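Read as amino acids, tokens; as here:

___
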Amino acid sequence: MKKPLLPLLILAAAVTTGSAQTTNEIYKVRAAVVEVSQLQQFRGTPERTLTPDPRFALTLRIESIVPALAGYTNGSLMSFAIHSPARIGLDETSKPHSFDFVLSREVHDGARGPWSFERPAVRVRQP
């Protein structure tokens, strides 16, 4: 007597789809604040963040990033859509100072998700 193949195929599909790999990339970024502007006035394409209601664009000039991130070297500009500067530790006096940021994003099967600011930025004190 032949056993139905369908239940075995369904089980195999469930096992293979359950093996999706999700990782969390974390970057330590030192960057100078170049501009904070209303999102509607921003010219360019900001990086997506986990902000549900972005209202501002934050542009940073990278001074260092660890680990290295392809496409971003020292001196590169990186812009983000954020809800408000205050939520990530910035205010009207932040420009042109340097800050340490911790950024993360989820990677699911090679697809990179939106950025998240892990904690408030810390201003770099110049000696």
The helical segments are 6-17.
